[in-house]
């Protein structure tokens, strides 16, 4: 007799297809047992008896008809492998091959879905020293039996207990429509705002993983420990299972970026007729480690699970369907917590010993299983998809859980601080501020400027070259003139000047005199400039005559000869000033509110960066620097102090060379520049214009402040084989740079953010301030000697984003909470992940902008890509837009970009608008100007937007340009000319605004579209209309 498959069976069959994420596998249970002198004939006899007794072992499935039936005859799927005569190594290889095959078996549904293998070996010992000469592999498909049923069959296989008779199968209990509707409403309300899959450190987006091999990691906890744990939960009315589940989920939540989990919990009840099968289901459980204390969270979890059991008429399959719409294309519930504590286990006196096992489930990335061994010790078995999670992460989770449970038992306390169980060994390269080594960089500078030996070239700009002595004389003049105007140490001088020798001279004059100096961006709009100057409360504003201010003065005035001799600071003063933590200079940086932030920096931090970098880069007087970074940008501080304190030469581009990358190449070649330091965008401009020999003098190139492209690194390596490459990082609030990474010759992928400079520490933290395990993305925090003093707001020091963080030792420390997210690798290097605003929500779906950029950059014709969110439509809903560059400078058909993106991204992640450009717009600091791109997209609201979710298939052809041209010619009323083609502008043909309506109507008639007239306005030629029609 045939019966229909259950919804769960149908789901398992669908999961065998690799059309689904993490599919291509059967729902399969594999177990391995060891035995010594096993009676194999007796095993075969007992197995025959079991197959005759349990219909599930004779069940076959007709996939096409969606039915199942029980065979009357016994088919014994027992394999025997005699390996006793094989050499040890050969036998082991054979065992591994067989284990790999049986552990990932995919049984033919038309045959009974199970198999048992017996491997006979020469006697050997397991890791505990116990001898064995037989391996037993059991392989069962959950289409016929759930885990509890499989355990029962295996227990009966290895004992002599009489088999209990089974009653006739009972029909499933009737479910009222009202009950099912009520349960559906319960789950809809409970899961309406859940985000799935949980934000664990997946190796790749789960939506992109078609299939995977599975592996098991196991933690064994002694039964006495579990008993003690149970006693800790009893006073709080916590069941042992609930407490264990809470400990597991609470610990696992530390590996998520948001501290939240949504997991599937299988539930099964013994069949009333005693038959074995798979009538299990599962419920969805949400867990958050935020708020309340652990005991309250554990009690809430227990209530949640027990409450869910009252709403099972809305099945697990129904839940999965409901969550699919919220899973961003990935599996609905890829995390499973399975309680196997009630399953039958083999007794200690059984003829076989359980050794290991593996469960794989379609669309499940990690299955955490609680079970007992023959000694009643707790085994936590984690079966995970190898393509979804790194094994090191799984082992780290289990180790943390073990430490947590042991600490709880030792202290008789369930409230254990995360620092006591999360391994923070990845912080091992952090260096205490106490290890700061003072460096009198200002005294060093003064010796070179005012000392007896000042003949070397200090500064070159255009045709002007200043030796150290000449530079020192001009700085002394500037100091004298500042003193003539009553400027004292601690006063503020704003320098509204372009990069120039004058700007360098006045900056150094202020630094040596102890005057707080503020380089101001001369390209700022008037309103912004007024704010920058007013906020920093300057005593003096130095400008080129283009500002109206009563406290203004020109560089020429301050550099004019004066009769007054300067009161130069003595060496001891400069030594003390170099180590001072008082304000020494201000730098403005972008603020999240749109208003610039004035960062207050000090000499002690600057000295640390200059000293550590000079040492690491082996900077000498023979080196030549070039300064291409704007003077109001923090990286320019090292151009200034890193070069001149070492006696090196600093080259400045002349005013007409400021943004001319060809001239930069010429300057590098002419002056034999050895060190280049800039943001990546400026470096890429340099490389674009390089000649065969223009950059051969460079011995070190450092870049930072933005994403470093692997392709740029590869280009740099072609310059010379011994070129040293560095990545630099750290926000302005951490002084010039506070983290770095030497890019090794073998590194070809993403460049690490790196490790902290000496006397600095970097931490990765969750939003609640707790420290993230290695591999988990969190907010980057930094502490140490490089920290700025805070922000200046209308003359007052503020501490926005400077927070008190609990260190790994539990002690409070001052730290800066950056706007970046990253994670620590196990080797102690930080990897940059995204900006805090790198995630946006598009139609309710969380989207990572860097992820989209990375995918679209893979298009062979695209050179670079920037994706932003911008307000679109009448309701200003968030949409995705992109600005892109092509390698040959030619725009791509929009349909081609979309077809490429569709192969890698869900439709919610595909930008609806693309702008082609010849270069990325840069901000004043040389970084990609995303605000400008966003503004450009917003201003082009009439341009045709792509509906990626309703896109044609990738092979949809473009509409024929000839037909489009004919329609336009007819509407315009002109005869075609031979030189007119798909790239010819319609305006050149005589197109006027009144023609557009008629063109739209004719295009809709010809191609079956529903274009509105306004959508054609941005289309300049037939090619662009063809792209619009295809979209």
UniProtKB/TrEMBL annotation:
<dbReference type="Pfam" id="PF00501">
    <property type="entry name" value="AMP-binding"/>
</dbReference>
<dbReference type="InterPro" id="IPR001242">
    <property type="entry name" value="Condensation_dom"/>
</dbReference>
<dbReference type="GO" id="GO:0043041">
    <property type="term" value="P:amino acid activation for nonribosomal peptide biosynthetic process"/>
</dbReference>
<dbReference type="GO" id="GO:0044550">
    <property type="term" value="P:secondary metabolite biosynthetic process"/>
</dbReference>
<dbReference type="GO" id="GO:0005737">
    <property type="term" value="C:cytoplasm"/>
</dbReference>
<dbReference type="Pfam" id="PF00668">
    <property type="entry name" value="Condensation"/>
</dbReference>
<keyword id="KW-0436">Ligase</keyword>
<dbReference type="InterPro" id="IPR020845">
    <property type="entry name" value="AMP-binding_CS"/>
</dbReference>
<feature type="domain" description="AMP-dependent synthetase/ligase">
    <location>
        <begin position="457"/>
        <end position="792"/>
    </location>
</feature>
<dbReference type="InterPro" id="IPR000873">
    <property type="entry name" value="AMP-dep_synth/lig_dom"/>
</dbReference>
<feature type="domain" description="Condensation">
    <location>
        <begin position="36"/>
        <end position="126"/>
    </location>
</feature>
<dbReference type="GO" id="GO:0016874">
    <property type="term" value="F:ligase activity"/>
</dbReference>
<dbReference type="InterPro" id="IPR023213">
    <property type="entry name" value="CAT-like_dom_sf"/>
</dbReference>
<dbReference type="GO" id="GO:0031177">
    <property type="term" value="F:phosphopantetheine binding"/>
</dbReference>
<dbReference type="InterPro" id="IPR042099">
    <property type="entry name" value="ANL_N_sf"/>
</dbReference>
<dbReference type="InterPro" id="IPR045851">
    <property type="entry name" value="AMP-bd_C_sf"/>
</dbReference>
<protein>
    <submittedName>
        <fullName>Amino acid adenylation domain-containing protein</fullName>
    </submittedName>
</protein>
<dbReference type="InterPro" id="IPR010071">
    <property type="entry name" value="AA_adenyl_dom"/>
</dbReference>
